[in-house]
Amino acid sequence: MDFDLSEEQGMLKDSVERLLKDQYGFEARGKYRAGDTGFSEKMWNQYAELGLLALPFAEEDGGIGGGATETMIVMEAFGKALILEPYFASVILAGGVLRHAGSAGQKSDLIPGIADGSLRMALACAEPQGRYDLFDVETSAKKDGDGWVIDGKKALVLHGDSAGKIIVSARTSGGSREEDGISLFLVDGNAEGVSRHGYPTQDGLRAAEITLQSVKVGADALIGSEGGAWPVISRVADEAVAALCAEAVGCFEKMHELTLEYLKTRSQFGTTIGSFQALQHRAVDMFVELEQSRSMTMYASMLATGDDAVERARAVSAAKVQIGESARIIGREAIQLHGGVGMTMEYAIGHYFKRTTMIDILFGDANHHLKRLARMDGLIREDA
Amino acid sequence: MDLRFTEDELAFRDEVRTFFREALPASIRENIVAGRHTSKEELVTWTRILHDKGWAVPHWPVEHGGTGWSPIKQYIYLEEMSQTPAPAPLAFGVNMVGPVIYTFGNEAQKSRFLPRIATLEDWWCQGFSEPGSGSDLASLKTRAVRDGDEYVVNGQKTWTTLAQYADWIFCLVRTDPDARKQSGISFLLIDMKTPGITVRPIQTIDGGVEVNEVFFDDVRVPVENLVGEENKGWNYAKFLLGNERVNIARVGVSKERIRRIKELAAQQRVGGERMIDQPEFREKVAAVEVRLKALEMTQLRVLAGEAKREKGTQDPASSILKIKGSEIQQATTELLMDVVGPYAMPYIPEDDIDGRNEPSIGPDWASTIAPAYFNTRKVSIYGGSNEIQKNIIAKAILGL
Questions:
Q1: Hey, are the CB atoms on B297 and A370 less than 8 Å from each other?
Q2: CATH number of the domain at A7-119, out of 1.10.540.10, 3.30.428.10, 2.40.128.110, 3.30.70.1230?
Q3: N or C: less crowded end of chain A, CB within 10 Å?
Q4: Global pTM?
Q5: Does A302 touch chain B (CB under 8 A)?
Q6: What is the ipTM of this complex?
């Protein structure tokens, strides 16, 4: 058992943290967000230069071959800086589908573009009626000559409005809540019949509702096997949850740091408010949640890339429960300890609170994952 | 970073697991499973079995009987022991006074006391808390006045766990009443048979007698029983309390209890179905399991960091282990109360004694559940209350 980062991992952490520290302050972030796309093209290109966009892809596909720990390092740093760029949507989600199910041709067509930053992708796997059940797919794909014609509505597609290409889940057979019969298709963002309604999310990022009306795609648009996409989707979702947990830990770390800073400088009744035991204990509660979240994120990252689907699902759900609960506790304490200024847009703390609240929702909130874990008999069993 | 156990650690885990299962007398195991207290004879028997194997004091230096295992292996050993479940070796000897003696004691003390701690020939108890000194331990008033080759001790200790069995007590006593309060304290080893010592049991709300008051009335203690230097006892006490926090998470105990909860919930029927099949109950259990897994990982992080820390210093983060560990232990006894239902009510203190012939009232496991629930309130109080732990974190880690 070894909790240390390797030398290369340590360097990765240093370089991404340095970049964000220099160029991703809270004020800079405000400017990036006010731009056309809602994020910084310049930063996006720097991520590409650092190799971050190529990180999880295999070397033979034009990537760097980073594993779960590398993704954890990067996502944690992104969380600390509260970045706006579509890294999660493009590299983790769409990239995850390509890594696990893409054909050699699809990989060589798409991964170099993702890795150099010229192609941004999105994954459209949720639907309005499905809540957190990604197998609840009513969008249909019907055979049309050699290709397919897709009809349906996809919900909350992260950065779906600016993506060049979108991976869409659609039903090729079976009933609307069956795990079998779901397929994944590559759709051009500007294809005829695709209408995208983009909007900002509470945390300052972007998402889109996407309607597909008789969208025609070729035979080569199918990613993976026909009707066999569910194991791919659930695997990508599990890895995505582990990445989100790491991002949340980065956010929590910063929230804790900002709150401590405030407690040590804000003066009332002739002394710093951090000298009050009632407030000290609340700051400790935040610290305990941060460390417990960090522990669970390490655990989930370790198991999220494993091949045992049930073990993976248990670990990931357990971590998401921890993160969701910690997000509530750390969020409410951080705002409370900041007092009035914690309620203002011009202070950073509230923005972290909003992002971690959205992270709880993404890919299933704490309630959803607690139910899932409970159905799988929990973590402690006769044999484990 | 690789959070899996190594091949070597896995093989070690199998070895200790197999040994514990085979070597622990079945009656001792059954008593623990049934929620009964382990008797003095049972603990002595088990300690001797461990000692014969060379595993009674694995964390001690090799020259005093330790094994030289890594912190992770020591953790695996304790984990497996509590999941067997087997009784833990008496902490007051092997985890508390033993390390103080081999770290700060003289050669005579080491050769006199350490072997008898390892075999439990000497049963030790802890004389720290006093009626007026709980969380504010350094305010203690028990006096030791030098008189020739002896100290004369007067005062009172309280919450002295299992003092009724003890051969020896290690005490914090005030040797310099004029010094600043932490500075005038010494660490004394006192034979419980010395004239002037009176032990009075305190019955706790569960009905059991684990703790006692110990009175000292002109108790004469040879100066050779002073550990280290006079008036430096507070340093040794801090060292001891730091060691105490390492094992205080009780991850293995809580794991074992969650297995027990699931096993019992499979036997209980509620509204025509098994309790274990009710989603809301499963979710309550799963919520505790999540917190416990996080605690286990935090524990391992603290242990892994220990190898890199200066010897004898503690990671202040170990306070997290105390806070979360005690909360989870309490949560598991709450779940047990949920499982047992109405047959938590009968109060049958005799059920704590093994081999009772009377038929039980309700399920034969039911009557020890409520006492365990009541008793477990103590875990967020002892060893530095959780509020004190928060003060430690606020000061030592957060810099507040």
A1: no
A2: 1.10.540.10
A3: C
A4: 0.93
A5: yes
A6: 0.93
